[in-house]
Every structure is written in structure tokens, then in C-alpha cells.
Amino acid sequence: MELRHLVHFIALAETKQFTAAARRVNVVQSGLSVTIKELEEEIGAKLVNRTTRSVALTEAGECFLEYARSSLSSLHEGIVAVRSQDGIVRGRLKIGILQSLTPYVDLPAVLQRFRAKYPQVEFAVRAVDTDEVPALVRSREVDLSFQAVGQRTTPEGLETIPFAHDVLVAVCSKRSDLATRRSVKLESISTEEFVDLVAKRALRAMLDHVFLERGLKRSSTYEVSDVETLLQFVSCGLGVAIVPAALVRTSRYASQLHILKIRQAGPAMPKWRIAIVVRAQKRQPHEKTIAQLFLETLSEMQKKA
Hints:
The chain is of the alpha/beta class. 40% of the residues lie in helices and 24% in strands. It has eleven helices and 13 strands.
């Protein structure tokens, strides 16, 4: 059994598709299929049930997945331990970030500070979607990632660390009739045309849940992929939106926008929450991963801000 067998199997188990798994590990789909077949032959058990559209783990596959993840984790920790025997922290830190993270942390400054403290550590930073964070962290494609929490629970094997929270506000153009008001009821604003994010974004999912929970409907006339474009549309008077307050105040269109507090008779509006997701690990107090050292630096700089 080779390392690639474990890596490919974990990718397939988490993506549940041969095409997606092959893309994740940078091999052709036929190569991934051969690897899984070799693994099943060596173990002597069927690990996956294949269909035309998806893959499901068998009972044996579910059992083996736990040991495969544990083996990769132990191997990674061993490499880090050997590289750090001389007291110098070495390695690579892979970080997942959100599109709308800037108002809540000066990440470049944090990275500069961390690099000054640990110059032998390399960085890899990538933008991620909230829904893919658990799989990316579990598979070690990223060591830690920021994630919009929403209604989600922490998946097994991961740890969610609260990082920031913000209030949701309604926003309209300063030319709108609503701009004469300081607050608005959710029921009232639901009759307006909305500028929304596309369905896969965490904020959109949260708002859909809020409106559904209160038995309200809204017209998502415009759907865009990022908050800055959303606010540009609103600033032009094309519609209203509900977004975290900090994103409005730090937008390049802030001077053209009017913020309204949302009044709610029923359940209070949820807060926009950002957390940091890492792998849950049992360690001795004196042992720290590179990810933990980064979190310490991040915490130090947030306290000074």
C-alpha cells in the first residue's frame, strides 16, 4: 500500500464523485479508479459502491476511512516533528479565506508578523466557499480556514473556533425613499426588489432561512457572486439588500448607501458569524502545530487592533 492509495481514497470518500476526487488530487479519473481498485484488492474488501452519478462508502469503507485519516495525520505530524528537532519551526501553512474577510482582520499584516517570527514556514492562501471548508480541512488541503458559521454544526474530527460576529442590516441607495428612515421591519422590506448573492454563498443561505422561518418571501431580482458588486447594484438604486454592517461601512460605495436597522417583532435577526476551522487534535501542552502558532499570532494582533 502506498501513500497515494490513502490520499486518493480520502478524496473520493469526501467528494463522493470520481471526477471531483481526481480533480482534487490532480490525477486523471481513470488513474484514480485504478488506485481505488488496487486498494480494494489489497485490503480484500469492497470499499465503495459505484453508481453513474455518485459514490457511497460501504461499511468496510467507512471503517477504513477513519484509519486512513489517522495514518495521514500521524505521518504529517512525524514529518513536522523531525523537521523541527533543532528548535526551528519549519513547514508549510495552508490557509483558506473568505471573500468578505477584510473588514474583520488585516490578514496581510498577520502573515507578515508570523513570517517575521517563523521565517522557515511557507504559506499557501486560497479563497474558499464555506460549504467546502470541512472537507478541505479534513483532507489537509488546508490546515485552517475561516468559515461563515450560519446554521451549521461542527463536523466530527474538526474544531470550530469563534472569530468574529457582526449585525445584519438592510441597505438601500441614498436616493431611495427608504433613505429617510433609520430602521425598517423585515416584513416591510420583503416587498422590495432585492439584490442577493448567488445560492451557494453562505450569506444567501442564511437569509433564505430567515425569510422562510418567518413565512416571508422576497424577490431576488438580481443575483451576483460577491458583496462588493451587490453593494454597487444597491448604490445605483436597483434594489435593497441585507448584509453584515461592516461590509457596508468598508465598501467603496459606502458614501452612496444608507443603512437601516432591522426591527423584528418575532425571533431576533441572527448575527453574521465567522469562525476558524481546524482539525481536532490531542496534543501535549508543550506541542504546537504550525496552525496553532498562527492562531496565537492572529489572537495577539486582534487584541492590539
